[in-house]
Amino acid sequence: MKNITVIGIWVLGLSVMLSTGCSNDKKTEVQKTAEKQTAEPASRNQEESQGIVLLRGLPTLGTQHSIAIVELDPESQKFGDILHEFVYEDFEHPLHHLYYSPNGRLYATGLDPACSLAEIGLHRDASGSPAIKGMQCLDTQGQQVGEDIMWHTVNGKQYMFVTFMGGTGVSQADGGSIGVFEPQTNAVVKVIEARRSEIPEGAPYIMYPHGISAYGDRMVVSSTIHPDLATGVGNALTIIDLNNFTPIQNITIEDAKPVGFPSSPVEVLFVRPEISKLAKPSVLVNTMFGFETWQVPYNEADKSFGNPVKVYDGVSSGTGVPLEFYGTETELFISHALPGVVKRYKLDSLPELVSSGPDIQAEAGAHHMIFYPTQSGRKVIAVQNNLLNLGNAADGDPTDVDFIAKVNDHSITVSDLMTGERLAAVNFKQRYKKGVENVEALFGSGFVHHH
Amino acid sequence: MFRTLVTTTSVAGICIGLFGCKQEPLTATPLKDFEAPFVFGHFQVPADNALTVERVALGRLLFYDPILSKNNQVSCASCHQQARAFADGKHTSVGVSGKPLAFNSMSLVNLLWGPQHFFWDGRAKSLEAQALVPIQHPDEMGQDLDILVKELSTHAEYPSLFAAAYGDISPQHIAAALASFQRTLISANSRYDQYLRGEITLTDQEELGRKLFMAHPDAKASQRGGNCIDCHSQFVTAGFSTRLDGFSNNGLDVEADLKPGLAAVTGKPEHRGLFKVPSLRNIAVTAPYMHDGRFATLAQVLAHYNSGIEPSTTLSPLIVEANNQVSDTAGAISLNLSESEQQAIIAFLHTLTDTDFLTNPAFSDPFNRAQDATAQVSKDAR
Prior knowledge:
A: mainly beta, Methylamine Dehydrogenase, Chain H, globular, B: mainly alpha, 15 helices, metal ion binding (chain B)
């Protein structure tokens, strides 16, 4: 009896089926959702090749600042596509540099006085895709023009250190500060400030700090340039005693002046055991306007710093404006905005700069970089090519200050990490009418010694 | 009643049987307000089982409905109770036969991320494949799938629910619905999650435990560590997503007593005694521990790792060489953590308890039978 009922039900069902068909002409919501959720093969983590990119709206082109998640796998059909974009409209100046904290929280320093430091919220939607759900500007107690961030533990306590090139007010001619933040709450613990105009003659000062690095209880920050790019230029490092957050020494880093300005030390890297157990502790310094890389020896025993030694001369090597230090497990990379090249060195030979392979040919303004594998497993490097991240005079943009040379290509170029071969490039100005301010890997830079 | 059955259950049978095409669901409502932590990583859902409101709702009903068992007395929730983070508090579970099963009930949490192999021995390669195993197991739910489909087809509610979610009732769609519900079991608001978001600060003891948990010991470098993260690197989700990563022999048994474990699936002798490394989310409420529930407390678990490791040929090398002392005169495999260090790790493990998850109404028994279990867990906790 039960079987007959079932058969009867099926026959009636057939009549329904014949009249309605089972067309697949239209995609259902389920299919659409499924396509989103399964767009990539499960065999690899396709997000490794995605970057978070800070984009700068170009006022003459009518675009707005934004944070974008961009596909950077040159083997992907989506290469250069913005997969997700969060536009923020409230600020004249954009966010500047991205950093992941050790706990995976995403921060950005900012150029706008109203948002010099921010935390960015990331989450995932129902498709599993990453998305930016917002940003929160943090209280910096008046510190402006955030540049670099470093998380460092001293005496058993971790802090978030941030350099503010504008100090407690960009109107100050000799300003600059290091913000010390409690990393869980983002609360300011201390503002380290030592303006030359407010301290005794000859006392250690802090001015226009940008680069930051630390080892043990010693921190090094650079003195780069006033945020208005006109009031003043630095030429020294400041050593800070982290036991009491006090500046204790200045070290002048300067030799030739190929463009007539002070050397403008920019990024610094404290070479230390966690970077390479074989390397001798020392500080590497890139001078933006000196075109040089310097080494400052460090004596761990008495915590003294030796005389600076120039280890790379850009003028004689045909490069200018050295900027960033990045590292993999075996190599250190230094970007040179002119002519747009990334040079590479053996990590274990530091602090000597011993070449480890062919240069990565980028574009004018070569600056920040990330490393990741492609879908096929090829190891690549992506370089953001913009020095000052400003507009272009050809567009009538008043923010154009290409005063040295053309240093804003507005692109990210991707090259094979082993051979240096250029694989792909995306020009954000051409494609999106925006400048490219900074790039960070979606999952962070991995084993990178940015500081 | 008959008309209802006609319109909801027969279409797909004819379609698949005679024409080979699949019946489309009647409705497909995207999940509203779905949000998952970025740090858990990317997740993927099978192309033929996209998450929809209808599928999750159906899966939840099925999960809690004893209709899935032969005697209509055992549901998935019998062994996977929300208040216990979807474990059951028994050494090994007991199903329709009344015989103790071979394994401890696994907690169900954050299954969107991680494993390509389910069960302690990895014998199922997807949540969908996993779902049908206990239903048919003679000691667990003992149900014949054909009979189950018929029962569901004559039910007052299920035919329309299946029609909305999948188009028809089939074993595959039963499994798919259960998998859909389980994929929504997301835990992301433990104290540790709040700590990661910067909302709270851990106590000194919890922070010490966190550091020990994360560290591999290196006695020569004076680096003390609990060696936990070496195997439990995916401890906030459901495990590893790469092939057979995430299976380990953690020194429970000597060579002669090694259970097949993963070798039962792969046939490889080097996989003897390897079992799935479980999520540690809500670990404080999922006792007893290990694949056979041999440890009643976290203190016993820590004592095992600290000084109770049994050597065997497949023992994890990460365990073998982990020691907080430069030389161990006793020659035993031992972490040599102090009592206070073990207590600190336990304190940290307690930060993984997500009360919101354990009481989330969206995961609860839609038939309102959960109160007794919750009360029992509360009693146990006291």
